[in-house]
Amino acid sequence: KITLGSDISKLEIGDYIQDKGKVLNYKCVPLYHAKGKRVFGKSRVTLFKCQATVKSDLSHNEVTLTWYNAYPNIPKILASSDLLCFTGPIREVAGFKQIVNPKIIKDFVFMTEDKAMHLDYPTVNHVPGTSIAELFEKININLWDTIPEVIPPTPALKHAPTITRAEAFKILHGKKEGEKKIAEDKIIYDEFISDQLKLKARRSKVLKLEAIKIESSLDELKELASLLPYQLTTDQQKTMEHILFDLKQGHPMMRMVQGDVGCGKTSIALLSALLFMKRGLQVALMAPTEALANQHGETFAPFLEKLGLKFHLLLGSTKIKERRIILENLAEGNITLIIGTHSLFQDTLVYKNLGLVIIDEQHKFGVDQRIRLTNKGKNPHSLIMSATPIPRTLSLVQYGDLDI
């Protein structure tokens, strides 16, 4: 709630006040030491620290306004205006209450007591919050009631918000009195439920797709694991058994391996890749950086040599002639393991029989990028690796279409 033109000495720090009054004096000092901010990516502007004393028309008290890092328009407004209409928060500076970084309201559009709400819109893509507020003001008041419900009211859910989506938006944009927290909860609730429904739909679709069945056994896993210079840990063994189970189901595996750096995720990726490569199927391993892609290549190389298998690197820095040869061999099926960065899902790449997609550091790729890579094959299996310390509950929300 915004207080209209009251004595700020009687208000609390953090309260918002809206007032108008005559400018008694002002001072603007350019901050030459500040680098300023880029405008449209090119020119720089000089920022100012401005302070003005205004005598309120409503309370008849003098009010101090202070702007830190103000753009040049603030000094211009203070120099050309005898009367200011403004709104902003009360802050304590050097023991005195004043209005800090207030927004100047154009054309003296002064809210009435029943409409005065704190609407602090942020600047978005160089569009100032004040301009965004003006756009919302131009929306016909009757249109706010036509905002449709995304999630139907669900009385059975104990924690479901009790207000409609239209009411929530009206409260958040100052068109109706109400508790802002309840309105925010409604919008957040709808977004979370919508995301869960999308994940559920995507998961259901994946389960209907047909994928290559890999009939493997624990004996084969034991044989491949013997290539490693160490025994698999209990968790690695358990994870590989889950993967073997997934590969027998006849629909695409969608599994995330999540664990701290150094816990052995790469060994899981290697063993999984070997299951496909031994059967002549292609594997694509995508990493977020060239350095990590090279590191995977160096890690895999000695183990692949023992089985007479090879891999190829496809990076942004790969020379055109070498890239052309790789693309031809990939399309003909002569390459069974390709390791690279974003290049792996570029339009010019054609895989003959892509069976497994491995994505390292999943959090550095978007879901769309993952889908673009899997679309390179006919429903290939997916193995996602991540060391990001995301709490499990948030993981299930963000990666709800994956087995973790």
Describe this structure in words.
By secondary structure, the chain is α/β, with parallel strands linked by helices. The chain has eleven helices and 15 strands. It has helices at 73-80, 129-137, 165-172, 180-208, 218-225, 234-247, 265-277, 290-306, 320-332, 367-374, 392-398, and strands at 2-4, 16-30, 38-39, 43-44, 48-56, 62-70, 83-93, 96-100, 103-104, 254-258, 282-286, 312-314, 337-340, 354-359, 381-386. It has a six-stranded parallel sheet, sandwiched between helices. A five-stranded mixed barrel has the order 2-5-6-8-7. A two-stranded antiparallel sheet has the order 3-4. The longest helix has 29 residues, at 180-208. The two termini are 45 Å apart. The model is unreliable at 112-118 (pLDDT under 50).
Tag the structure with descriptive keywords.
single chain; 404 residues; alpha/beta; six-stranded parallel β-sheet; five-stranded mixed barrel; 11 helices; 33% helix; 22% strand; elongated
Radius of gyration: 30 Å
| Average pLDDT figure | 85
Secondary-structure element order, as H and E?
EEEEEEHEEEHHHHHEHEHEHEEHEH
Poorly predicted runs: 112-118
Structural class, please?
A: alpha/beta
Shape, please?
elongated
Separation of termini?
Answer: 45 Å
Strand content: 15-25%
Strand order of the largest sheet: 10-15-14-11-13-12
Using DSSP, what is the number of strands? 15
What's the helix count?
11
